[in-house]
Amino acid sequence: MKSLSVFQIVLLSVFGALAISGMLIFALVVGSNTGNSIGPITIWGTLEQSAFAVVLRQASEDDKRLSQVTYVEKDAATYEEELTEALASGEGPDLFLLRQDFVVRNRGKVIPVPSTFLSEAKFKDTFVEAANPYLAEAGVLGIPLFVDPMILYWNRDLLAASGFPKPPRYWEEVPEFAQKVTKRDDAGGIVHSAIAFGEFANVDFAKDIITLLIQQAGGTITSFDSTGRLVPSLTLRRAGEPSQATESALRFYTEFADPSKIHYSWNRSLSSSRAEFAAGDLALYLGYGREATLLARMNPNLNYAGAAVPQSKVASRSTNAARVYALAISRTSQNPQGAMTVAAVMADAPIARALSVATGIPSARRDVLAEKLEGENELFEGQALIARSWVDPDPQKTDAIFRGMIEGVTTGSSRLQEAIGRANQELAQAIGQ
To answer: 311: which DSSP letter?
Structure first.
């Protein structure tokens, strides 16, 4: 992430070249009513307050409707609890950042944007595919701002020491890679690990990784049936036969924690995958784009780079995972029309572009992502464009479900099909079937 002084220079040029006018994507913001404030609007979120403050200050010079908009940064660890308590008491923000995997859990807190203002077709034309969980029968449950894609971070020194100039491009290459890169001591303990796969508790984003592998294999986690109901689909049948996607993904993932395999490279005695990578003891780390700054702070001397997430050689298309952040209108807002207007203005291309620059997180807009950028942003934005999401009924419950599925296999208490079948049943319960 660049310093705020650089942000301000970039943002001044952005707003100097693109004055905000009535060219917005939502019908409710038509015209050029940029001279009047719409009153105080408070936004809560877990992203950096300084970045939002710079953008809103610059944007309000051109559009007075934003002059009383305030963004408040909240602690990610307590955000959900604090938001729930504030809304229950009739207080809280007018808008809040809603991540795509929390949409189902938090839909009761949201005033949907009607389809008359933002149709499904316009939504899909404007925003990346990973944002689709915000689409609901009642309307749009959040207006997307950012898409934070998964990135493969790799340690240059560990790869070079094993004769690899670059990280693997395909998952089929990773077992051989792991065999050569993983180093053990005389007692068999892992000193340097190739990749943190196989466990759940000490693998950051383990659920995100295994669900990505399932999707890359052509499977789904949840889906909608012919009546529009959300249903579990880990064991979805295709052409009369059970899909093998979940089984192949789970087998691939868990084998890296199996000491009997030659590509064994991870176990539960190790620190978290992020900590091992920051310490220089993990060659490949799957994390999110906004972690680049965190990793640099954790170890300024770490010789690492980012790369595209590996794909399957037999996949019909490239697929990645991402976290999407959208502005949702709070049901307790005293000014819901004003909140909707602010969300629309902030999601339009000029401010969306500026927020992306300020936060270092790619915009969720397709047109902004299509602009030619250089260096690291080019990687992040390319990965954002191929990202896909699934509808998560409740992140806390599904964390436990996927942990049970993975650990059932790694401990030997369940066979692959048994673990998957149980997870599918538990998903149904989480959905409310």
So the answer is: B
Report residue 371's pLDDT band, with 50, 70 and 90 as the boundaries. confident
Q: Tokens 């189902």 label which residue?
A: 104
- 283 half-sphere exposure, CB direction, 13 A CA radius: 29
Residue 15 neighbours by CB distance under 10 Å: 20
> At residue 383, does pLDDT exceed 80?
yes
- What is the sign of the dihedral through the CA atoms of 280, 281, 282 and 288? negative
Domain architecture of the chain: domains with CATH: 4-149+322-381 (3.40.190.10), 150-321+391-431 (3.40.190.10)
Residue 262 three-state SS: coil
Provide Rg for the chain, Cα atoms: 22
Residue 296 has φ and ψ, to the nearest 5°, of: -65, -35
DSSP per residue, 222-253: EEE-TTS-EEE-TT-EETTEE--HHHHHHHHH
Which residues sit opposite 304 in a β-bridge? 155
Span 360-371, average pLDDT: 94
Max distance between CA atoms of the chain, in angstroms, equals 73
CA distances to 168, 176, 179, 287, 381 from 164, rounded to whole Å, are 9, 11, 12, 21, 26
Task: Quote the mean pLDDT of the chain.
Answer: 90
- Single out the residue of 315, 290, 292 nearest to residue 305, CA to CA: 292
Residue for token digits 């892992």? 190
- Helices 206-216 and 395-410 cross at an angle (nearest 10°) of 80
User: Residue 45 carries which side chain, given as an amino acid letter?
Assistant: G
Element (H, E) at 51: helix 49-62
Q: Judging by DSSP bridges, how do beta strands 241-242 and 320-330 pair with one another?
A: unpaired
| CA atoms of 61 and 337, how far apart (whole Å) | 21
